[in-house]
Amino acid sequence: MSGMDIEAIEIQVDSEIQNISSSQNLEEFRLKYLGRKGIIAQLTSAISGLPAQERATFGQQVNGLKNKILSLVDEKQKFITAGSIQPAVTLCDISMPGIAQELGHLHPVTQVMEEICAIFMQMGFSVVEGPEIETEYNNFTGLNIPLEHPSRDVFDTFYLKGKERLLLRSHTSPVQIRVMKSRKPPLAVVVPGRVYRPDAVDASHSFMFHQIEGFMVDENIRFSDLKGALKVFAKAVFGKDIKMRFRPHFFPFTEPSAEVDISCIICKGKGCSVCTKKGWLEILGSGMIHPNVFKHVGYDPKKYTGFAFGMGIERIAMLKYGIDDIRLFFENDLRFLRQF
Amino acid sequence: MKVTYNWLKDFVEIKISPQALADRLTMVGLEVTSLEENAGDFIFEIEVTSNRPDCLSVMGIARESAAILGHRLKVIGHRLDKKYLSPIIYHLLPIAIKIEDKKDCPLYTAKIIKDVKVGPSPDWLKKRLELIGCRSVNNIVDISNYILFTWGEPLHAFDLDKLNGNAIFVRRAKPGEKITTIDAEQRVLNPDILVIADEEKPVAVAGVMGSKDTEVTEATKNILLEAAAFNPIVVRRGRRNLGIQSESSYRFERGVNLEIVDNASWQAAELIQESAGGSCVFVKSSGLAKTKKKSINLAIPMVNRILGINIQAPKIKKVLSSLEFKTKIKTKNHFAVEIPAHRPDVTSQIDLIEEIARIYGYENVPQTLPSVEPQVSVGEARDLVSLIKNILVGLGLNEVITYSLIDKDLLRHFATQEVDEAIEILNPLSREQETLRPRLIPSLAACVAYNLNQKEDHINIFEVSKVFSQSKASTHEELRLGIALCGIKSLLLQQGLIKDPVGLLHLKGISEVLFVRLGIRDYAFKVEDNGSIISVYAAGEKIGLMAKLEKSVLDRLDIKNKDVFVLEFSLGRLLFCTNLNKKFSHLPVYPGISRDISLILKGEVLVGDILEAIKGEGNPLLKEARVADYYKGKQIPPGFKGLTISCLYRSDERTLMETEINPAHSLICHLLAERFGAQIR
User: How would you classify the pairing of strands A187-196 and A126-127?
Assistant: First the structure.
């Protein structure tokens, strides 16, 4: 070892430190020179092997180099740390708007309808659709709704001009008749679609809206199965903490019939303006398919039982998203649609 | 239906609070929609379903309450009876009841009460009626209303001295016969309507409303009190025919209990004598006041099979008897159940099962999960529609849902020929609902107009919905896709804002993405002869069109200084061509060479023809020729356009050499210059 070596090492150090830009490289550099088996350590251990007169000078040179490297590493470390705060500025102004193809929006009714269909499909139901122009038979008679009976009052209906006994379906239930007439049990079907009723339009009424109907028929389908299936549905749509209750009601095409309420999602059952202080929100109608409906489609009511349910999609969407006017769904204001 | 807590207590002992009673009633199917405290009483408003006419009375709701609470109903009798009537007077006042058809009116009773003093009702009566929202008129009218609400049997009191002759006729109206009803409306009758008439003219629309000139007034001395039962369908037809509804008709068209008629009538007579004086001097009845007792077999296993519970015979018997159904054991698992007269809605075993479930409590039925064998269905139309919607959303379009019913006049502006084929609605509520739309474009255009009014500067919407049409005997429904674009799309890119006014090429681009994603390779866009419409073809079949809306249409929709571009496809045909099967082709092994050609062309030369010509050259090494850029502007002379075509040459066997391409590429440039007069730059 000689003074020359020290000088050569110093030149090497100066050039290497220049090219270091990351903490990792700096650490490698530090270990190379200052590590336990690093170059400085090697030089130091070499001192004892030198002739006595050279030892002091060489020792001072090595020490000087060591101090220089220490300060270089320190300096570089500061530079790297300071630099890492800034790189965004040097790459781009990340506070500028991002650039991407803007996505459109599915109508909220479609989104809720798809979500509900998906829940029932996971339970093994299949989706069937039916025509919107229906016969009076499928819409009423086949569903055990007598033609001249007060039970028809809730089903005011648009009739077609010049087409005897043809109408715009007032519910999706006629598809029950169509499916049962063309297939044999076991059946598990959901039916989404548009329905029409001549109601004057206001914040909660529309002459056109969407329903989803579901029914299941087999040899041993029970009212308890209806309760179980709808519970799965309600928890999936409104959350697992939702409470549910079944109230006796009357529908001509089911018996026993039930209206289904969920605990108010706004006030959690305490009572508010949305649930008119009742703590409950009605969300759907349901029941066991009436034996007369089975007779109409040629099923043996002694052999088969089944349940059916139906709900208004807009109603569910209004509750889910907190929409307070049904007309918004059909106005199609882009500022409304973009929220979903 | 409104009832009060105290009124109910006349008939049944209630030891629970009004709120608790309301909750219990709701859970057996009599939904209490409001409960209010007023003047020391509580008013329940109850939604009574159309199958339960018996609950359109305090008595009926008391009966349900008794079943819930496990109490018996209090028996309310009447003191009056025929034996109290003077036989002499009885014979002096013969009034005959003549029922034209017993099917229209199975039972008619009349009582004559002489020398009444018409005046205000006693306070207790006024208060009860007012609490349930019924205006007090006079003692006679109030008593008949009180009996109606208590027993569910509508009564009617005539001023006896205004009736002509000695007979009451229950008959159909003659064509053109007239009556002025109590609400002072003159109504023209027809033979669909059942009336009560004296010897000269109708004095009431049976079960609906009495006539003005025979109503009970302050001057009335003698009354004829009617209590009857009418055919529900006849009452319903009559009142719909006349467009009126009353508390009476509401009950009659749901069916009243024949067995209650007599009792209700006597109760009324007794109350009248108590509060208006006078004496009941004559009673006449025509028809049968009994219904035939029905008996239904109930199989206990069926109860458990339908409900998914395990309820035993003694419990079933207890539930049914709480509702006044009498049970008789036939065999071990079968009951014969006798149906009480007030429950005409119970006609079959399933009705009994519902009664058991109601009182047993729906909340006590467990929740189970049915086992279903999943029916897997792949690639159904619905899935494809969903795919299409998601592709369009991915392209930035927003889905709208517009009404299927539209204004005929609006339609006429779009499609004159389709107006005649459009299906019309017999009973629209407004002009906007006259017609079932035969196409989507008018609705979408109206939606664009709406959003322009909201100051949107870029509107891009689509709808998937049915359209309707008719031919001679049949109606047709077809699923369509409609798209409408309007305004300027703003793209903020690195180089700054780019304003891109939307047009037909955007519609074309959207269509092409759809075609590619649906696996449709064979498609074409053809300009129709009139130049304003572009027909779109897939697999050789026309599937729809694209167009720019005409000025007359824009004027009709009040759209000013904007162009609207629309597209409408038949989804049935589109889905028919769809092929979602995918097949892998190997990636090229050797690199290709790309060569651009920059051209200046006459404005009228079609880009499609240029590309066809390049591909038509038939060079097997040319794998692709596409438009890389186009421009008009300063460097291009007027009437010309600039175009850059990018050609890709590649061999599947070796790496191509520049020198191999040069002759082929020159040939193409030469061809373009020669055939289209293109200047190659």
Answer: parallel
Please indicate, yes or no, whether residues B476 and B502 belong to a single structural domain of this protein: yes
Measure A241 CA to nearest chain B CA, in Å: 16
Q: Do B307 and A222 touch (CB under 8 A)?
A: yes
**Which of 293-322 (A) contact B at CB < 8 A?**
305
Say yes or no: B442 and B572 in one domain: yes
Return the structure tokens found at B430: 């407004």
The whole-number pLDDT of residue B321 equals 94
CATH of the domain at B566: 3.30.930.10
Name the architecture of domain A108-337. Answer: 2-Layer Sandwich (3.30)
Q: What is the pLDDT of residues B563-619, one digit of tens each?
A: 999 999 999 999 999 998 999 999 999 999 999 999 999 988 999 999 999 988 878
Query: How many percent of chain B have pLDDT more than 90?
Result: 77
Residue bearing the bigger pLDDT, B75 or B350: B350
The shortest C-alpha distance from B135 to chain A (Å) reads 26
Which chain A residue is nearest to residue B445, measuring alpha carbons?
A332
Given the DSSP bridges, would you call strands B423-424 and B398-399 parallel, antiparallel or unpaired? unpaired
Segments forming the whole domain that contains residue B437: 381-577
Burial class (CB in 10 A: 0-12, 13-18, 19+), B89: middle
Whether residues B96 and B164 share a domain: the answer is yes
B265 and B300 assigned to the same domain: no
CA distance A12 to B523: 69
**Residues B148, B188: one domain?**
yes
| Structural domain contains residue B169 | yes
Closest partner CB to B305 (pick from A102, A104, A222): A222
pLDDT tens, position by position, A231-246 = 999 999 999 999 999 9
For chain A, which residues make up each domain, given as ranges? Answer: 3-91, 108-337
Instruction: Quote helix, strand, coil % in chain B, to nearest 5.
Output: 35, 30, 35
Query: Would you say residue B373 lies in a domain?
Result: no
Does any domain span residue B74? no
Task: Note which residues in 76-95 of chain A have CB less than 8 A from chain B.
Answer: none
pLDDT value of position B38? 93
Question: Could B377 and A126 be called an inter-chain contact, meaning their C-beta atoms sit closer than 8 Å?
Answer: yes
Asked if B242 and B298 sit in the same domain, the reply is no
Provide the number of structural domains found in chain B: 5
Is the pLDDT score of B41 beyond 80? yes
Whether residue B254 sits in one domain with residue B188: yes
Q: Which of B396, B433, B494 sits opposite A104 (nearest CB)?
A: B396
Give the confidence band of B401 by pLDDT, cuts at 50, 70, 90: very high
Across the range B85-92, mean pLDDT stands at 47
**A5 pLDDT above the threshold of 80:** no
B324 touches chain A (CB under 8 A): no
Amino acid at B42: F
What CATH number should be reported for the domain holding residue B341?
3.30.56.10
| Strands lying side by side in the sheet with B167-172 | B96-99, B167-172, B194-197, B202-205, B209-210
Same domain (yes/no): B115, B245: yes
Q: Answer yes or no: is B376 within a domain.
A: no
Confidence class for position B284, pLDDT limits 50, 70, 90: confident
Q: Which residue of A has its CA nearest to B405?
A: A208
Which of the residue ranges A318-322, B531-535, B621-625 would you say has the lowest mean pLDDT? Answer: B531-535
For the ranges B42-46, B68-72, B419-423, which has the lowest average pLDDT? Answer: B419-423
A248 touches chain B (CB under 8 A): yes
Helix ranges (DSSP H) in chain A: 3-18, 23-34, 39-47, 52-85, 87-91, 108-122, 136-139, 174-182, 223-238, 291-297, 313-321, 328-331, 334-337
Per-state percent for chain A, helix, strand, coil, to nearest 5 = 45, 20, 35
* Out of B28, B398, B425, closest to residue A158 by CB: B425
Interface test with B, best of A95, A184, A223 (most B CBs within 10 A): A223
A116 pLDDT higher than 60: yes
